[in-house]
Structure formats: structure tokens, C-alpha cells
């Protein structure tokens, strides 16, 4: 029997996705648009292959003056796509008076930089357990003059130590008993205690790859201290309906996203 030599055809939906991303990239008008456009194409290819020097950092300038450093890593590129192209973390109008941003699962800092550009908070706390990500995170915060504290730790229900599993894609590492990296774990209450003493509204962003399930099964007194909760809840790893109900009972009702269907982040705002 002869081998099937029929060429593989890329699905129309994938082609449409690529076209949409490149169109939005043009609208963003980064200084290094050709590089970003090529890297977005590489994002698709990296699903199927590896490239040499994938972890080499590169920096692009954006039209708003932001400078974004990232690696040719699917996780980094996905973060650019979700945050800067799809607007996953566009803050709601009710967050305009936020003075502090707490970024749990900060990865390489793209959300911290984005929210600082949008809200101009007085201070940002960025929490990231992966040391390789944390190095890029510090660079992004520094070059964008974000007043911030970086905590090289994971968010959890209580303070302590735990095993963290790193993945090839930089944005999907998680706490796992089989993980090969021991990291510090900080409760959200402990993290909020590091904010300045004077009052001010707090926006807390959470994207901790399913770790939210353990967090929301623990002490929730910290919910009274935040004004806005933005996060990606991971269906299959956490009881997302129960978490949403807990937020609602804490005076943080769900608010539909500014761009329905665009990006993964949900939003709850104190009324």
C-alpha cells in the first residue's frame, strides 16, 4: 500500500486566528512590528517543534512607550497575545481608582506592566515562583518604571514550602507534589500585608494554573481587603462555580468582561 502523500491543510479557523492576530499587531503599531509578527507565527509552529535558543530574551517597543521583554517560548508569546492583543485584562471602569495591583502568577510581568499602563497604581506586588520567569519579570518592571515588589514565591492557602512543576511552556507551571523545584508559598493575606499601610483600593489578579482551588478552600478573610478580582479560573482544576459564588457572597459580584469572548480573564468588582 502506498503512503498517503496528501498535503496537510491548515484549518480555516487557525488561518483566521493568525490573520486576526497579525491585524491587531498592526493596529498596536509596535516599533518592532516585523519581529513581533514573525514571533506570533512562531507561536503556532512551536506547538509542533523546538527551536534553538528558545529562551533567549528579546525586547520590543510598543506605541504607548512600553517595552516588553520576552522569549521565543509559547508561554511568553501566548501572554503577549492574550494581554496585549486580545485585551484579556482590560480593567473595568469601576477599577479606575485602584491604587494597588497584586499580580498572582505574574509570569514575565506582562499583566503587571499592562495594568500599570491602564490604571497608574501607586504600587504593584508581582508574585511568581519560577526563577527564570522572575528574572524577565524584574526586567519588564524595571524598564517600564513600574513601582513594584517582586516576590519569588507561589500563592497558596497558607505560608510554607511546596514543590513546583516547571513546564516547557513558561505560563503553565504549577504547584505539584511531583514537581522538581521547591518554592516558597505565601498566603494572600501575607502578600496583602506587604502593601503600604495607608488605605486604597486593591485590584488582585490571579492566574495560578488551578492553584485557586486550594486558595479558595482556605481562609478567605483577605477578600474583604480587595476591590476588584480579575482572574483565569481553570475548569477541571478548580470548582469555578463555587469560587464565583464565594466572590459574590463576599460583595464581589461577577461583572461581564469589557470585550465578551475575548481573552480568558473573568472579573468581579465590589459594589
TrEMBL record:
One of its GO terms (molecular function) is methyltransferase activity. It comes from the Bacteria. SUPFAM superfamilies: S-adenosyl-L-methionine-dependent methyltransferases (SSF53335). InterPro entries: FkbM_mtfrase, SAM-dependent_MTase, SAM-dependent_MTases_sf. Pfam families: Methyltransf_21 (PF05050). Residues 103-246 form the Methyltransferase FkbM domain. Keywords: Methyltransferase, Transferase. GO terms for biological process: methylation. Gene3D superfamilies: Vaccinia Virus protein VP39. PANTHER family: METHYLTRANSFERASE, FKBM FAMILY PROTEIN (PTHR34203), SLL1173 PROTEIN (PTHR34203:SF15). This is FkbM family methyltransferase. It comes from Solirubrobacter ginsenosidimutans.
Amino acid at each position: 500500500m502506498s503512503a498517503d502523500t496528501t498535503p496537510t491543510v491548515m484549518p480555516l479557523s487557525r488561518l483566521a486566528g493568525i490573520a486576526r492576530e497579525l491585524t491587531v499587531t498592526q493596529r498596536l503599531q509596535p516599533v518592532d512590528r516585523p519581529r513581533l509578527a514573525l514571533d506570533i507565527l512562531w507561536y503556532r509552529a512551536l506547538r509542533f517543534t523546538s527551536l534553538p535558543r528558545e529562551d533567549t530574551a528579546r525586547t520590543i517597543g510598543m506605541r504607548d512607550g512600553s517595552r516588553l521583554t520576552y522569549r521565543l517560548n509559547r508561554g511568553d508569546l501566548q501572554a503577549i497575545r492574550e494581554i496585549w492583543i486580545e485585551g484579556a485584562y482590560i480593567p473595568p471602569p469601576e477599577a479606575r481608582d485602584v491604587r494597588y495591583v497584586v499580580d498572582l502568577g505574574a509570569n514575565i510581568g506582562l499583566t503587571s506592566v499592562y495594568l500599570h499602563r491602564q490604571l497608574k497604581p501607586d504600587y504593584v506586588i508581582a508574585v511568581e515562583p519560577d526563577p527564570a520567569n522572575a528574572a524577565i519579570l524584574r526586567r519588564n518592571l524595571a524598564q517600564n518604571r513600574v513601582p513594584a515588589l517582586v516576590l519569588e514565591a507561589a500563592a497558596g492557602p497558607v505560608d510554607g514550602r511546596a514543590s513546583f512543576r516547571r513546564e516547557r511552556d513558561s505560563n503553565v507551571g504549577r504547584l505539584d507534589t511531583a514537581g522538581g523545584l521547591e518554592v516558597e508559598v505565601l498566603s494572600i493575606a501575607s502578600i496583602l500585608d506587604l502593601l503600604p499601610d495607608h488605605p486604597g483600593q486593591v485590584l488582585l489578579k490571579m492566574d495560578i494554573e488551578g492553584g485557586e482551588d486550594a486558595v479558595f478552600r482556605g481562609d478567605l478573610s483577605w477578600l474583604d481587603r480587595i476591590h476588584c478580582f480579575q482572574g483565569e479560573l481553570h475548569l477541571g482544576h478548580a470548582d469555578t462555580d463555587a469560587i464565583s459564588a464565594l466572590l459574590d457572597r463576599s460583595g464581589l459580584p461577577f461583572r461581564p468582561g469589557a470585550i465578551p469572548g475575548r481573552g480568558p480573564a473573568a472579573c468581579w468588582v465590589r459594589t
